[in-house]
Design brief:
With 467 residues, this protein is of the alpha/beta class. The chain is 37% helix and 18% strand. Residues 1-23 have low confidence and may be disordered. Bound molecules: zinc ion.
Amino acid sequence: MKLHATRTGYFCLLVFCSSALAACQEPATGLAIDNVTVVDPVTGAAEKQRVVIRDGIILSVSDQADSVERTAATLDASGHFLIPGLWDMHVHFLYEPALRDGMADLFLDYGITSVRDTGGDLIQMRALAAELKARSTPVPNVYYSGPLLDGRFVVYDGGDPGRPKLGTGIPDADTARSYVAQLAEAGASFIKIYELVSPGVFEVLAAEAREAGLPIASHVPLMMTADRAGPLADSMEHLRNLELACAGNWEALLAERQRIIGSFVEGRGYDLRRSLHSLQRVPAIEAYDEARCDKVLGSLRDTIQVPTLRLNTVAIELPFDDADWARALSELPAAVAEAWQANADQMRRNAPLADTTFSRWSQFLIGRLKHNGVPIGAGTDTPIGLGIPGWSLHTELAQLVAAGLTPREALHAATVVAARFLGLEQEVGRIQPGMRADLVLLDGNPLEDISNTRRIRRVMLDGIWVR
Ligand SMILES: [Zn+2]
């Protein structure tokens, strides 16, 4: 097998070499990773490969014995495994101020070369993006949405200590139109719609974003069902509110929510949402109707589901039970590590009392998504819910596998699916000629054991080893 990028520079060099031997004395450029097992998220593993990288791009992937390119540098990677750079599809740089500046480095440490920031104040997010761009040290690719586009009431309105202002209110269609234009102008890569938005505004936001070329990430708005909102969006987050659509009595539940939200005239968006979840979530799961749910999921074959399974199951798959937890936590600023450990200790005490219905249902639903051909993306919601930036993606991959994905499918969720959301699937996410050289070299085969994604030897960003 021999694949070649159609890069003009390469072919010019070939022509020049054959016509004038002297030109071949020109110093070779680029880098080769020799004798490596390439683990592509679509085609699987190929042993004894030579991957040549030049100008930040994968130039060729070929059997070691067939490769002829001269390169300035080679790395013998015998016994190692090369995967595409990972994505975390759901992060919040602005949720925990003490982590704001350190998250980018942590992502690279853990082989995450691209992230989607799925909600934060627009001005602050723009400032952070500019700061990251100006750094002299490498940073991962950051794609951001700006704030959670919410309804007349806003869940994350910034009114409580410890819960930052991540959302903004979009009360009507005119505001929706001007706000999407503002987001596009500010450099947002996509939009994020939240739970208290009205169905009419949801539709305008989706249409305007489509028009502006911005992909749409969304929660299922509480006044809609997943099969109505989902097909208008490109990704949906947390599997949240899907349970409301999968219930046999979904119509009665929806009517009840619409009535409660419609008559809510005073109070906090956060409390409104919480009261609806406590009222309907568990009863909906208890009224689960598989035929109805398959119909709902059947409408989502073009809408990526980002389950954030590790977040949904934080009460039963306790992150601090992981043997590597203490080490990973120690890399956070001391005050954060201390607060999180106190939080973890309290969670351990409360764990026996926690309602596990939604956690178990989330795990169960992974199999139903797979059965119905719904695309799954990997995201963590870090740093929310004890999600250590970077580290938590590896726990998410392990959980997706425990819930029924193959290791290859889990890698696919953290690479190809994420790139597809942003329309970048021809540029990044696989190990193929012409793709961006964002790569991770591992000490173990992730297809044999997904926890081998943690055994990171080196990380490459844009063709340069950065770790
Ligand atoms: Zn989130």
